[in-house]
Amino acid sequence: MPAYDFRCKKCDKNFTVQVSIKDKAKVACPECCSGDIQQKFNRVNLGGISGGSAGSSCSSGSCGSCSGC
Ligand SMILES: [Zn+2]
Fold this sequence. Notes:
By secondary structure, the chain is mainly beta. It has strands at about 5-10, 15-20, 35-40. It is built from no helices and 3 strands.
């Protein structure tokens, strides 16, 4: 059975529940029994460093950290 990470919107509790997909909607917060919960998805690395490609794409002109300046 898969496990899902949830966060309670009411009390901010993070918890993991092993539940089948069809019962996922019935999951409630173990702390305050609220059904107002949000499923957490694994954080995808969106590449926080912008302009990673060195070259003429540098917008600041002289950043000193890329080979394009
Ligand atoms: Zn809660």
